[in-house]
Structures are given as structure tokens and as C-alpha cells.
Amino acid sequence: MDNNFDVVIIGGGPGGYVCAIRLSQLGLKTACIESRGSLGGTCLNVGCIPSKNLLNLSENFYKAKNFHKIGIEIDNLKLNLKKMMENKNNSVETLTKGVEFLLKKNKVSYFKGTGSFKSKDEILLIDNKKKETIIKTKSTVISSGSKPTHFPGSQFDEKLILSSTGVLNLESVPKKLIIVGGGYIGLEMGSVWSRLGSEVHVVEFMDHITSGMDREISNEFMKILSKQGIKFSLETKVNKILKLSNSVKLETINKDGKNNILEADKVLISIGRKPNTESLQLDKIGVKLDKKGSISVQNNYETSVKNIFAIGDVISGPMLAHKAEEEGIAVAEIIAGQSGHVNYDIIPSVIYTSPEVASVGKTEEDLVSKGQSYKVGKFPFMANSRAKAINDTEGFVKILADNKTDKVLGVHIIGPHAGEIIAEVSVAMEFGASSEDIARTCHAHPTFSEAVKEAALAVEKRQIHS
Fold it and tell me: Which of 68, 150, 341, 445 is catalytic?
């Protein structure tokens, strides 16, 4: 194989493989290096995809246990966790093979192994047999992703102290699961195991869950999860984690200075992720990092070294697969001489619990902190015909619009299919829509999306159905 390329991508996750495909489409000879042994990165292998599979299956199981309330009788319902995990693994395998097919289809050279910089235009590839190969390149895109942050003094053993990877592969349902950190990942995984029978207890250092979310949505979200049986200890710090023979103890202290001991079968550490850059030998070529350990980049994603770019979780910003994909497309077009761009004001985020939570744009706290004048429109799913018809009425839609221009500044949804509904308002916001634009757009009836229309009407206090 000719190991001379126009561009080499280090990392085959959502940002990396999408970038590689777009570069090849633009006529550049492209290679993609991935150390995991399968493409798709954290998202496809041990993140977004397997977690959504388990979220869906666990929700089906939970619903089935309650079918008798709506006239569907099931005898001898039981959980087969082994088969559930096999289903998850099959989904992952199918999708990762699909990505490999896409690279082949688009004539991207795929190298399995660990890549690091030998020089600014040479990549040292070490495969799983320790064989070394030098790959030459005119430009390089670093897209090596991120990894879970461990609790100080306690490493992941994936048996008692779990990362987001280990919690996806449990062989039995823990009687009690403690989650350290009330963010997206922890709450999704807490929902999975709670539905399957675990007693779940979330310990959060801050006074609210889901940091960065619109506070009204966050508060409602916690109320709903609490009704589902998940326990919360807010403003509580974990001082120490102690492993016992078959359980874990946590020493905690709350805002009042009260010490407490919590014990569980397992603990999930979900306190964030950090850029995966240690093995790249960045110091050898002078690529600079910021104070948080992320790679510093300019507006065109170029690092401190010419023709070396970085995207996704290794740079600042939300660690979201779709954010990395957009950056992958943008940097590919920039390298090819076009004008790639990402609108960071319109990056949606979704929590795939039940109900789902989705948001895009500014929160109410953002607008208050900037002294921006705004107006609010809200509409509850309790008043939505489709939601009422299927007994799925928790949550609401909240739209924030500029007080003078009526331009939509942010939309926050907690409720059924929020992750799909958010796409409508993301498109609207990309085109600079006003709340009136959304309010005057005909929405099919009966649909959940009608709640968006009604919330838009409510911005001017003229909603019809509430």
C-alpha cells in the first residue's frame, strides 16, 4: 500500500470517519487510523448506540410490566439480561461494520492501530502485532475523542467501580447502584438499571442535576425521575470511595457539613470526560493545549502547528457526536479550500430517558446573565391530544424569543419524542425564525409537534389549547 496521503485522520469516531469520507468526496487521498479495532469511536462502540439500545429495551420491559393497566395481560414476564446484552452487541457490530463499509465505498484507506506523531508530516502507526509503519501526510486531523474521568484515588475496575463503558456490560442487575454525577450519561444509565430493578441513588455536588440545562427544565426533570424511584442527594461531595469484597462504600459530606456513608453493589463514576491525547506525542511537534487539556485551535480548526487540525472531543465545547460530525465536515471543506463552518449557537442536545429532554440555543439563565430582554412561551404535553391519547403527558415545551425582534433564541423540551421534535426548531433557528413563524406553520394533528406550535403561540399569550 502507498503510505503517502493528502490527509490522515487520527481517530475513527463520528468526527473522524465523517471527516475522512467528506475529504475523499472532495478528491483528497485520505487515510483514517483507529486504535479500537472497530470504527465509530466511543459513540458507536461504548456510548451513544449501546446506551440507546439498552434505554429502549429497558423502557419496553418497564412498559410491559405495566401493560395490565391499559388492558394488556401478560403472564410470567421476566428479564433475560444475557439476551438483552446480545441484542445490544449485535446492534453495535452491525453499525461499526457499516462504517467500515462506508470508508471502503468512499475509497478511504483504513489503518487499524495506534497513531502518533513522528514529525509534523509523519505518523507512526503501531498495529496490534506491534508492527511499526510510517505514514506520510500533507495534513493531519486529530479526532481521537475522549475517555471517562476517574474519581481521584479510585481507578475503574469495571466490576465494582464502573465507568460509562463498564455499566453497559453488567452481567446481572445490581440490587443497588450509586451514581456519582447527575449529568446526561449518569441519568441515562440510572434510568436503564432502575427500570430493570436496581435501586438507584444519584450523588451530585451541585444544587441541581444536568449542569448547563435550562433550570426550569432541570427541576422538572428531577421531579419526574424522583417519581420513577431514583433517589437524589444534591449539594453532596464524595470524599472517598472504598472497595469491599462484593460492594462499595462512599464517604460523603452534604452542604450542612453532615458526613454520611452510602453502600451499594456497584458505583458508576460519571463526573465527566477528558480529551484522549496522551499517546499522540503532541509535545514532539509543538501542538499546544489549553488549561483544561484540550487542544487549542483557531477558527479554522488548525492547531498551533500549520496543517495539523483538531476536532471533536479533543477541542473545547460540548462532547457530542453530532458536534464532532459537523466539525469533521467543516474542517474537510476548509482543507479542500472551501468555507466550512459550524454554527455553535444551534447545537441540539438530547437526554434519552423517559421522558426525553432536548434543548437548543440559549437557556433562560444565559439570557438573564447577559441582560437580554426576552419573552417566554410554554405549553404542557398534558394539553396535547396525541400525548393524552397514549397516556404520555409529562413535560412541556418552552420557547424563548427576543422581546423586540421575536427571533427564537432557545427551545427546551421535556416530554415524549423530544429528541426528534427538537430538529424542527433547530432548522427554524438556523434560518433565523421568529416565534410567529413557527406559530403560523401548519402542524399535523394529532402530533407531539403541535406542542411546539402552541408554545410558539404562547409567546404572545395566544395559545389555543391551554
Answer: 445
